[in-house]
Task: structure prediction
Amino acid sequence: MKLCGLRNAPSTPLVTTRAMSQSVRSSPGVVSAAVMYFRLDQLAKNILRDFFVLVGAAETEVEVPAGDAQRIDVWHVPDPALLRAHPEIEPGLLRSMAAEAGMVEVFSAAPGAAELHGCMRKRYQWHHTLELRAERALQLPSAWIVSAGRPDGVLRDFGFVQDASGLEGLYAGPAPGWRIHAVVIAELPRVRGTVLLRLLGAPRVRRAALRDLAALPGDAWERRVAMPWLVRLSFEMPEQLLPGLSSEERDFIMETREWFEQFTARKVEAGVEAALKEALKEALKEAKKEAEREAELRAEEAKREAELRAEEAKREAELRAEEAKREAELRAEEAKREAEQRARLRLTAPMCELRLGRPLAEAETAALGERLARLQETRVAEVMLSFSAEALATWLADPNAT
Result:
């Protein structure tokens, strides 16, 4: 929410606790108005944000990248599933605002041309930033200018016209392509569908909206959205600043406090038993969740242990298979060598017997096989060809022969 003519509204409290008492003594009216302005600014942004969160994603104080600091009051992106999940938000102004991605700028007084241009500048820069992030063209976000007072100059000079819906206080831009609407809170009809927006209006409008909110059913969704922020506004306002407020602002704060205290008293009187039952129900639900979490943890642990055992068994099986493979290869190699030695012996023995002129004795056959394995066929052939029968027999009988 922005004061008319204030280009960059502060986002932090305007006075500190330590300096408050001195400020009140020096200029109590100015300090009270400044603090009340800040509180109302936060009220407007938080109520709108919490409404949009019901049906999508929403943020306040969204910083727009630019040369100077610019912030969008509320930026929201709808979630179609959440919109369908909240049929209690009846068709109307708020649901129309939540139907598509857009920015909301709230003014405590009627904005002028400069403020409108500032809003449009932020929208176009933010649109450019979103397209750069998405790396594609995006639809221009809608813009909603929410004003407590009627901005006659803006409505006239920029060609705003009564919206086609016929809702009082809602104005559309001169053509659909501009994707901009102006909401004049003071002109909105006093119906349930506008109560949250009317809480952002001038003191008189705000007090009427508070009474309408108090008259809603206890489980009304509008109460859930607005009550926490209204209570904070009324109870967090320092008592020493109340005299500096206008009578309408003081009456609003006191009425909010009285309404909340009555509401709390009724809840205490009528809801003790229900609260106990709900607490027991929640405790049982939490115990069930805890048991389920423990069961999931145990199951996960058992699963990890089984996976570890399976992995270990797999490694052991692979090691045994590798060892068996090596042993088989060694046995095959040994068998191959033995077969080759027997084949060489079968070929060489007849030639050796021919040289000796007699059959080989068993010991000589074994010696010949040993010489073939140790000295190879070339040396054995050389001995058989160059040695006499007697020298050959002596060579076979010598275990150290070469």
Observations:
- Confidence is low (pLDDT under 50) at residues 3-24.
